[in-house]
């Protein structure tokens, strides 16, 4: 009885720390494209029950796997950044402990995915491999301008959609054009988040794309990708590919509005709070056309 209390307390703190490392605020970044693939494959709002396994895999497990390994290898630099306050910088979890958590979460994610379908395990492995490539030496693409964006956005734009599709069926008939446009969105939403870290990354010796090309060009890359998404999807709606053709009358007016909102909210944002404010405004309103697409695709609208 004398040891049960402290043991439960340490266990509870460990669970909370691992949850914090997994960054729950990021779960939707992977779960939304995962659900898109799930929806496209099943053509229903709620498809096979295997989707519940996907929620666990593409939510907490993959994020714990890639972020714990990232935090472990970033620890020396994070200790120099006053904005970093994590279980590792606070000393509650060691570098070795973070690596154990990362490999354990990765193994469980792949095992659960394989239990659903080998193709889902392949998509999960691709996502995790990109996370390792991004964070772990000697590759550590995080420190290679351009490749940092590639290794961050390809898993979120492509492997997540593949994972959602594979939850329902094999890759035959997989809509690669959808993965391509989701990739454009991921780049558009990721690049602004690099801007506030330019000074701290430079001080820590990280040569990210934003450090290399500067804040203005980093924003412009995101803007071009955001514009490209709206142009391509409007064309898809016009020809009735993936989109119901009637949706072009809704989608086409949305395009210039959302392009303007992205520019208005992010063109001059440099501080974390300004970036967050601009992205939150765009992201919340972006849910409206997304919801219309989902309801149109399954036949509720149109």
UniProtKB/TrEMBL annotation:
How this chain sits in the membrane, per its record, is: Multi-pass membrane protein
Task: Give a GO molecular function annotation for the protein.
Answer: transferase activity, transferring alkyl or aryl (other than methyl) groups
Q: Where are the transmembrane segments?
A: 21-40, 52-75, 120-137, 149-168, 174-192, 219-240, 246-262, 282-300
Tell me which UniProt keywords the record has, alphabetically: Membrane, Transmembrane, Transmembrane helix
Subcellular location, in the record's words?
Membrane
GO CC annotations, alphabetized? membrane
User: One Pfam family for this entry, by name?
Assistant: UbiA
Mind telling me which InterPro entries this protein's record contains? Prenyltransferase_related, UbiA_prenyltransferase, UbiA_sf
Mainly localized where? membrane
Q: Which GO terms describe its biological process?
A: menaquinone biosynthetic process
Name of the protein:
Chlorophyll synthase
**Source organism of this protein record:** Actinocorallia herbida
């Amino acid at each position: 009885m004398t040891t049960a209390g402290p043991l439960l307390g340490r266990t509870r703190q460990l669970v909370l720390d691992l949850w914090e490392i997994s960054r729950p605020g990021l779960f939707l970044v992977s779960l939304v494209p995962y659900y898109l693939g799930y929806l496209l494959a099943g053509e229903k709002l709620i498809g096979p029950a295997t989707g519940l396994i996907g929620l666990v895999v593409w939510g907490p497990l993959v994020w714990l796997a890639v972020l714990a390994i990232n935090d472990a290898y970033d620890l020396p630099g994070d200790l120099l950044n006053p904005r970093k306050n994590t279980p590792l910088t606070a000393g509650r979890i060691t570098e070795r402990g973070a690596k154990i958590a990362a490999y354990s979460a990765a193994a469980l994610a792949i095992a659960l995915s394989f239990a659903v379908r080998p193709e889902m395990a392949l998509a999960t492995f691709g996502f995790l491999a990109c996370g390792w490539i991004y964070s772990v030496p000697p590759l550590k693409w995080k420190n290679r301008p351009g490749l940092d964006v590639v290794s961050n956005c390809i898993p979120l734009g492509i492997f997540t959609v593949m994972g959602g599709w594979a939850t329902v069926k094999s890759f035959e008939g997989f809509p690669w054009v959808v993965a391509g446009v989701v990739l454009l969105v991921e780049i558009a939403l990721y690049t602004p988040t690099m801007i506030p870290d330019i000074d701290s990354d430079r001080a820590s010796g990280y040569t990210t794309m934003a450090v290399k090309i500067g804040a203005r060009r980093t924003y412009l890359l995101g803007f071009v990708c955001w514009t490209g998404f709206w142009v391509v999807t409007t064309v898809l709606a016009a020809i009735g590919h993936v989109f119901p053709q009637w949706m072009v009358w809704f989608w086409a007016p949305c395009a210039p509005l959302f392009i303007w909102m992205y520019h208005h909210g992010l063109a001059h944002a440099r501080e974390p709070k300004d970036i967050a404010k601009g992205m939150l405004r765009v992201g919340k309103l972006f849910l409206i056309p997304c919801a219309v697409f989902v309801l149109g695709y399954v036949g509720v609208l149109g």
